[in-house]
User: Which sequence fits this backbone?
């Protein structure tokens, strides 16, 4: 038996493989940069009580924040405590995206969710990574970046009046409330990332469509165009933004002569296929 774990700050998806049988569990999220080891230990203890834990031979953990030796040990120690017979492999979420999207083939793997990231994958490992640098100065292509573009246009009065009226009515916003959410409340990134549903709902409005294309153009400019021989590489996507704006990504790719491959909502199903092979 093996366990495949895909972990983010919001939720963890656990898949237990026993031959062709698959069990699925969902727990709250974990990121070693933000959470203590005890939190993951609690989740591992919960899952271990639902399965034959001594029969688990290998654990493959893919998670945000797992690119350093310190964080690797935090995750590994937490899991080994409750699955003592298992070999534990801990990987960054970029490798999860690459394996889910490409398997043993090569290409550029793109994560477009609340945040964004990307890498060049050679079919075995990540060989190049252009740093996304986070929501404050980067994360182009992400839900947070879409919200930043939208709010910037709103407070600078460059948003057309027709969509501005709809926006203000739907969110009960004005200039003062926006400034308050950005500069006095905690986690302004969550405020920014709450607006992609508005763009999706109004995607037939020219302004909303153009803003989304600007978002993808910036992702290309600051991340994709930096990769070696990017013009001849496939681009494949995973994440909520990629999934919900799939049609627009395909249009954007065609317009820019890019090779667009698979688009997945989450990497876990692709990882399941990868490890079943």
Assistant:
């Amino acid at each position: 038996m093996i366990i495949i774990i895909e972990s983010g700050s919001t939720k963890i998806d656990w898949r237990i493989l026993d031959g062709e049988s698959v069990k699925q569990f969902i727990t709250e999220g974990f990121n070693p940069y933000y959470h203590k080891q005890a939190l993951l230990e609690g989740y591992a203890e919960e899952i271990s009580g639902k399965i034959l834990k001594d029969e688990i031979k290998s654990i493959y953990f893919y998670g945000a924040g797992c690119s350093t030796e310190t964080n690797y040990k935090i995750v590994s120690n937490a899991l080994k405590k409750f699955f003592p017979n298992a070999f534990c492999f801990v990987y960054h979420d970029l490798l999860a995206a690459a394996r889910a999207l490409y398997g043993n083939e090569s290409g550029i793997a793109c994560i477009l969710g609340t945040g964004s990231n990307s890498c060049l994958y050679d079919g075995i490992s990540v060989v190049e990574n252009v740093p996304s640098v986070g929501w404050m100065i980067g994360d182009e292509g992400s839900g947070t970046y879409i919200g930043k573009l939208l709010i910037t246009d709103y407070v600078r009065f460059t948003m057309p009046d027709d969509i501005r009226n709809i926006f203000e009515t739907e969110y009960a916003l004005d200039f003062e409330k926006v400034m308050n959410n950005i500069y006095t409340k905690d986690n302004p990134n969550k405020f920014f990332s709450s607006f992609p549903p508005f763009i999706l709902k109004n995607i037939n409005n020219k302004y909303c469509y153009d803003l989304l294309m600007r978002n993808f153009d910036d992702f290309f400019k600051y991340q994709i165009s930096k990769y070696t021989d990017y013009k001849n590489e496939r681009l494949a996507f995973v994440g909520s933004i990629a999934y919900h704006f799939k049609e627009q990504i395909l249009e954007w790719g065609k317009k820019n002569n890019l090779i667009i491959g698979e688009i997945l909502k989450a990497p876990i199903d692709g990882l399941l296929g990868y490890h079943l092979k």
Notes: The two ends are 14 Å apart (CA to CA). The beta strands are 2-7, 11-18, 21-28, 58-63, 87-92, 107-112, 116-121, 126-128, 234-238, 259-264.
